[in-house]
Amino acid sequence: MLFLQGCKDTHYGANCSQRCSDNCLGHICNNDTGYCTNGCKIGFYGNMCNGRCTTCPAACNRSSGICLGDCPEGQYGDACDRTCNQGCKNGCMKDTGICKACNNGMYGDVCTDECSRCQAQCDKNTGECIGDCPVGWFGVFCNKECSQRCADRCSKDNGICNSCVVKNFGINCDKNCSDGCATDCDRNNGSCSCSPNWQGETCSEVKKRSASQTEFPVTEVGAGVGAFLIIVIVVIIAVVVLIRTRKSKESKYASSVLFHKSATDLDENKGYTNLGGITVAIEDPDEEPQIEKPEECVYYNNLSVAKDIPVSDLLNIITTKQAKENEGFQKEFKSLPYGERFPCEVAKSAGNIPKNRFKTTFPYDHSRVVLESSKEFNSDYINANYIENMDGKREFIASQGPRVNTVVDHWRMIWQEHVNYIVMLTNLIEGPKVKCHQYWPEAGKEMDVDPFSLTLLEEKVYAYFVVRKMAVRKKKVTGSRTVVQFHYTHWPDHGTPDPLNLVDFLRQFRHKIKPSHHPILVHCSAGIGRTGTFIALDVLSRYGKVKGKINIIEYVKAMRKDRMTMIQNVDQYVFLYHALYEFFRRSGQFVRKEDFLSEFANLNKAETKKQLSDEFNELTSLKPKYEAKDYKSGKKHQKLNASKSVLPVEKYLVYLTSHIAGRDTYYNAINVSSFAQAEELISAQFPVAGAAIDLVRLLIDEDCSFLVSLNPMSEVKEDDILGVEILECMSWSSSQTVPADKSILINFIKQFCLDRRSHPDGRVAVLSKDGAVGCGVFCAVYNAVQQIQQDAEVDMFTIVRQLQVRRPEMISTVEEYELCYDAVHQFLASDSVYANT
């Protein structure tokens, strides 16, 4: 009889010739596979216990090798084989590498960002300074300079001086005490003890004048003719005399596009220059190229593929993901592959490191733009990558903003790749930091970037962007090429722009460019954050418009395959969702002026009335739904509002800054952008009884050069008085939603446009009974006229929508919406200079 017997516990295999691993507990394993039956000895893992836990401080999981317990201080990762960033204090989180705390002077998840001029520490998450700022600085980041007229410190919150230097007063110590003061004057109102021959509260009057002759300064605001009347209402302020000292100053509404000064304007040994009182670092080609560090994050390995999102479900998905302080967005963003994932060896070579703006942002070797070498240029390197669209076509080039030493390479790339269109998403200087070197010529000057010469053919300035058309010539090459740059100028230094404004910029960009087989160049400063956000918005919006669905997370992954860290932080990622939602909600259409004349010649036609009614209803459905907290100031000052139903949205409220005893900083007025200038307009109500002085403060504080009154000022019952010249529409009663004679509006706007052309500086205050009725129509038609004069087309739907974002009560009836179209049609039909473009 034959007895069959298996292997001993310590052996395995067909003939039991294989010995179990010495690392198996008890040397026991499965007779067939050799897998350790009772697990592994400490320090080993795997089926056969042949893996060694070399980096674990203690034991590791005997199946996966993942370290059990915490990693040694300074290490993280499943195998504790990754090193925490040097900025971390007390180590970092084992799973994520996020620092537990930061060393002094550093902040961010991995403590790579440097705090600003904080006197002590800064917040680990935001970088905001904790405690007071050093003497002479203010702001949450302590990066804004106090007025030089502050005697010592200024308020960290708003920059208001704690005390003034001798002979100065005012909220910012920017006013001079009167020459008649015998002593230093009062910090708040300028009052003082008078020298001989001077009198008055501020000693600004010579004694030969009587007190009754004290003059209130007159503010010129502009005047119209014809159907509007210039009236002067003299109002006597009984208690407070507000003295206005106008000084020549740079308007705070000047272009946000800042330019480098030439080297000859700099002190020989200084790396700084002064622009508008702000000290700004100037790039030096010999200094370290790492001016700032882009945010870093942790790579989470996630091989799963996310599902497509129907564009109709986008709002519900946003609502879900932003619950619990954006918990869903945070989790999704952290699942993205982050940082350097592929080789970047060319970028790290010694000769190319000075060409990189940041020390950790490099182009991948496999997707980088390789410049053609020649006798003149032996380097093929530029910090730029090709980016694919949804179809896998290399539709974009994502690039860092040019440095002083890379401007030539920038134009070599543009010429080589036949780039027709550039999208620029940063200003040259933001805060104290140089973001990009100017690589285009100024008007009337040719720019030589050997071997290229550049000429600015045209520059159009809009509220939130600038379009520049340039001719580019290359030496020894016949002819020239046209390159058009679309420069978005209102992306804030910290945070993200208004979604609707960036969507409108994208629509304008796509509307103005022609189809091209050549790549579109997109850059910001590092070429990853804003650049990635814009490219994703462009690609996904076009794809979703055709397919009805999008996949945001998968496209961001695809971009990061081509260039590291595209969409740099979670705020930009959340912003992308909101911008896509705004894009898919509803967009207007650009109507050429010739088509506008024919299509809207008769607003009484049934089909035209239905079209405008449908558009108006659509606009009503798109109005933002603000919460009570968004009207905090208006609710707090109900007695100062002409209407309880028209309150200013906190985000757009104009605060009064001049100091008057007994008066607050509130006035029912909001900032409004025109088509060509950000926040050129102020939409405000008439002052309630006893508050005329606040209107004067508004005009002075905001440096207004025009006051446009859409209703007769005689209807305003005031006990207080003010002297001011007013451009006044006498035929539009405040009891009427639209004027009885609709032609008055376009005549009024025509005259205003002429006056404004003669006096383009300063802001425009537009007043009506409640700051909404009348103001909305005026602003909409004025913006439409500007669009016609600039682009020979108009998009009334978008114009009105942007106004209603800031004050939802504007154009709240279909009659007002029809009046906008009617007035624009009259403008185009009139035989005058106004319609010339």
UniProtKB/TrEMBL annotation:
Pfam families: Y_phosphatase (PF00102). Keywords: Hydrolase, Protein phosphatase, Receptor. SUPFAM superfamilies: (Phosphotyrosine protein) phosphatases II. Residues 329-583, 612-827 form the Tyrosine-protein phosphatase domain. The keyword Hydrolase applies. PROSITE patterns: TYR_PHOSPHATASE_1, TYR_PHOSPHATASE_2, TYR_PHOSPHATASE_PTP. It comes from the Eukaryota. The keyword Ion transport does not apply. Residues 500-574, 743-818 form the Tyrosine specific protein phosphatases domain. GO terms for molecular function: protein tyrosine phosphatase activity. It catalyses: O-phospho-L-tyrosyl-[protein] + H2O = L-tyrosyl-[protein] + phosphate. This is protein-tyrosine-phosphatase. It comes from Magallana gigas. The lineage of its organism: Eukaryota, Metazoa, Spiralia, Lophotrochozoa, Mollusca.
